[in-house]
Design brief:
Helix 3 crosses helix 4. The protein has 9 helices and 5 strands; from the N terminus they run αααβααβαββααβα. The chain has a 5-stranded parallel sheet with strand order 3-2-1-4-5, with helices on both faces. The protein is an alpha/beta fold and about 220 residues long. The protein is globular and about 45 Å long.
Length: about 220
């Protein structure tokens, strides 16, 4: 029997984790069609290594798996090119199950860690992510200052201490990207308007060739 392409694991994750808990972690589920669109743009060759630094239940990694196999990779080899990180152990387990169900002899690489505290020891050709959206007032003062100083160093500018955590994720993820690689991120639409995102937009324009900004209705 073939495996249903739909992310049933993600649906289960949403069902068993209370909405309030997911909101505290800044977690919002990515619809499969959006994840498929982003991975098809970001992944261009079957040899591309792929990172999702906030992998959740594995929606982006599953779509990346299908994209790599579409480009000619064997299933087990495609899994070896996929790398996920998540701070939530349950999310990491579900990502592992989601991928293992599609290549039963594989060993998916899902790391349970705080991505913002991990130095980039490996570069990737493709990074796809729906980062957490935790607001600054939901973070402890010590942690907020710790990650802000890290991002100050990486961006070359002082990042606003009022920034939502997706700002930190996008800038830190850039340090994991190979020269000439592609990065596709979801952000709240407020990025276009809020003062704290000014440094982020300047960083994007300095360090990237911006291909598109796609705005979805609420």
């Amino acid at each position: 029997l073939g495996v249903n392409r739909a992310d049933l694991i993600g649906t289960v994750y949403e069902d068993i984790i209370p909405g309030e808990e997911r909101r505290k972690l800044g977690e919002y589920y990515t619809p499969r069609d959006i994840a498929e669109f982003m991975t098809r743009w970001a992944i261009r060759q079957k040899e591309d290594s792929v990172l999702d630094p906030a992998c959740g239940s594995g929606t982006f990694l599953v779509e990346s798996f299908y994209r790599l196999t579409e480009l000619g990779h064997r299933a087990d080899d495609a899994i070896e090119n996929l790398h996920g990180i998540d701070i939530n152990p349950l999310a990491g387990l579900m990502s592992t199950v989601n991928l293992a169900a599609r290549a039963t002899s594989s060993r998916p690489e899902i790391r349970i860690a705080d991505f913002l505290l991990l130095p980039p020891k490996q570069k990737f050709q493709s990074i796809v992510c729906n980062p957490p959206y935790s607001r600054h007032h939901e973070l402890s003062k010590q942690y907020k200052e710790q990650i802000a100083r890290q991002i100050d160093s990486e961006s070359g500018r002082r990042v606003s201490r009022l920034s939502s955590i997706y700002v930190h994720f996008l800038i830190h993820a850039a340090s994991y990207l190979e020269e000439g690689g592609r990065m596709a991120f979801i952000t709240p639409s407020e990025i276009l308007d809020v003062d704290y995102a000014v440094q982020l937009k300047q960083f994007i324009l300095r360090c990237f060739t911006l291909r598109a900004v796609i705005i979805y209705p609420e």
